[in-house]
């Protein structure tokens, strides 16, 4: 384990971790302190599997994307054999970045500085003026660990990444496979910058306590009793009806070969995750403004539209929604202690035609609105946490269970890795 050098401005991380009160939010330095942010980048984003985007981000040979994780730039490219590979976006000559754009197309990877040229497998092919003794085989691009799970791309910057990614892959691929992400295309991708710590972005995603009051577009297709309620005589019948609906729909979907039951491993594994297919309200087809499909051409081999929504959450930085007609996938990448990038990607069938099979505004309306609302909420939280009046507050045991699991995972991972 690497020892992180603490500065006078960094609080005692061991004391903060030791006094973390279960079922309560974290202390302010976890959201505001630059020293703790550096710990997060080194020990959380530097040593765990990070979701970086869907496989259709690089659909053809030569297509690439770059992903920025702190000071590290990672290049993800599809090679001539159609394999997706990841490399550090650093020339082996004098360190120049190879690809400057967030996405593009290349034949080979050519350094813009001195034109060292690499093939798409990362091998150095050409380096002028280096002499006869120069061995190109010793100057390949540095690889980054990459796993493709059902079309979702995860990378790990550690030399020895957590091996339990295999467990997540075995569990999740049967859930995701029917949606056939490899046969999808990106219809739209939007990046937003939130002026908050990345953990606030993730915590906000892990609960729907706030949904009814803040997300009128999203809640069109969500069952009210799926938000989580403290049971009482007034709502017990509604809660029971919702639970029976989930049970019935799970049985129907399982019979169609669609795994649906909850798998919960958010805080008991290094590579934490959770999944469940849940029914949607009203038309029950998709997360749209009328709960009907946004794309007429369904995914995979689906011939039924009302297949609910498969949700998949991973620690530390992603969530995903798979429906019969489209997929929405989210990655969260920290920028600084109080600034975070959220990338939202909408995917439809690769043969779907915009204007005929789907309208882009209709496809994206729910999450464009929801993201803007969430941005305001997390930024207000960040502002409040900066105040001297802030102190950790209690989580609802009925609606914020997954927030507690996120924080528990985070605290446990830091505790295990920090020296």
UniProtKB/TrEMBL annotation:
Report keywords, A-Z: 2Fe-2S, Dioxygenase, Iron, Iron-sulfur, Metal-binding, Oxidoreductase
Main enzyme class: oxidoreductase
Could you tell me which Pfam families the record lists for this protein? Rieske, Ring_hydroxyl_A
Mind telling me what this protein is named? Aromatic ring-hydroxylating dioxygenase subunit alpha
Q: E.C. number, please?
A: 1.14.13.-
Q: What is the lineage of its organism?
A: Bacteria, Pseudomonadati, Pseudomonadota, Betaproteobacteria, Burkholderiales
Q: Which Gene3D superfamilies match?
A: Naphthalene 1,2-dioxygenase Alpha Subunit, Chain A, domain 1, Rieske [2Fe-2S] iron-sulphur domain
Molecular function (GO) terms for this protein are:
dioxygenase activity
Q: Which organism is it from?
A: Undibacterium arcticum
Q: Which domain of life is it from?
A: Bacteria
